Amino acid sequence: MSKLMGIIQRLKVMQDAKETGEVQQRRFEVNGKTLCQVKYFPNNDTFEVEVFEDDKPAQKYQFDDIDMASIDIFEIVQEEVNPA
Hints:
Elements: H1 2-16, E1 24-30, E2 33-41, E3 46-51, E4 59-63, H2 66-81
Antiparallel strand pairs: 1-2, 2-3, 3-4
């Protein structure tokens, strides 16, 4: 659960910096491998999660809810930490 809270806090910091008007960006990595990149767009209060997989082109997902974006990132990280 603490990993999920850490993700939420990182996304919240991105939201709190919206006064700058600049797109905020963060990467989420496990053991030096970048799993996804998150951008926060302050103009429309949305997150974009770009997922990187070894053999596939990157996929982008849009979220207008911080909780849903956090859960998606958490699941991506957990899959890398605990593969099926």
